[in-house]
Amino acid sequence: MIEFDKQAIKELSKLSPKLRKHIVNALERLDNDSVGNVKKLKGIEFYRLRVGNYRVIFKLKKKSIHVVHILPRGSAYKNL
Asked: Model confidence over 2-21: pLDDT tens digits?
């Protein structure tokens, strides 16, 4: 199951439909098959999923992925 923060929904809605679909497909692959370019972020409980030049910042809960931010690579790690 994939859950989105209000902020993540806002960031996703600002993207082009093609990029939005690409990110949602990557999240579904991660949720269903555990496939994706994922790394644990140092010093905090977040992970990141790389989707082209965008980073999906999320937390893992027992049976869900809780998406916090969807941002361009350059600004994805500021203010975490």
From this structure: 999 999 999 999 999 999 99
| Contact (Cβ atoms closer than 8 angstroms) between residue 56 and residue 48 | yes
Q: CA 72: distance to chain centroid?
A: 11
Domain ranges of the chain: 2-73
Task: Look at the block and give the residue holding tokens 């809605």.
Answer: 13
Supply the pTM of this predicted model.
0.92
CATH T-level topology, domain 2-73 = YaeB-like fold (3.30.2310)
46 by Cβ neighbours in 10 Å (0-12 / 13-18 / 19+) ranks as middle
